[in-house]
């Protein structure tokens, strides 16, 4: 069983801008929402909707990463009739994840 409260990461499938996104990592302990460029490209959202972000981000490998921008997206979780829709701000749109491997 799951001991509550917990802050373990969860992997889910969500609908973003009418596109099904699989294997989305939700980390309730994280203070920001990150969307990678390859996932953003699949949404076919015009790049001009990105808002500038001037603050760099430190990658998993400790490198400084300059985000491409931030964006507000419609996200749907669940299936009808138990469905919820929220508007989320992805503050960091970045090229790729760098690992220490």
Question: How is the topology of this model organized?
Answer:
Elements: E1 10-16, E2 19-26, E3 34-36, H1 37-43, E4 57-58, E5 64-65, E6 69-79, E7 82-94
Parallel strand pairs: 3-7
Antiparallel strand pairs: 1-2, 1-6, 4-5, 6-7
Brief digest:
The protein is mainly β.
Write structural notes for this entry.
- This is RVP_2 domain-containing protein.
- The protein is mainly β.
- The protein has a single domain (10-94), classed as Beta Barrel (Cathepsin D, subunit A, domain 1), CATH 2.40.70.10.
- 7% of the residues lie in helices and 46% in strands.
- It is built from one helix and seven strands, in the order βββαββββ.
- The strands form two sheets. A five-stranded mixed β-sheet has the order 2-1-6-7-3.
- A hairpin with a 2-residue loop joins strand 6 (69-79) and strand 7.
- The chain is globular, with a radius of gyration of 15 Å.
- The model has no long low-confidence stretch (mean pLDDT 81).
Keywords:
7% helix, five-stranded mixed beta sheet, mainly beta, 1 helix, Cathepsin D, subunit A, domain 1, 101 residues, RVP_2 domain-containing protein
**What count of structural domains?**
1
CATH class: Mainly Beta
CATH fold title: Cathepsin D, subunit A, domain 1
**Count of beta strands:** 7
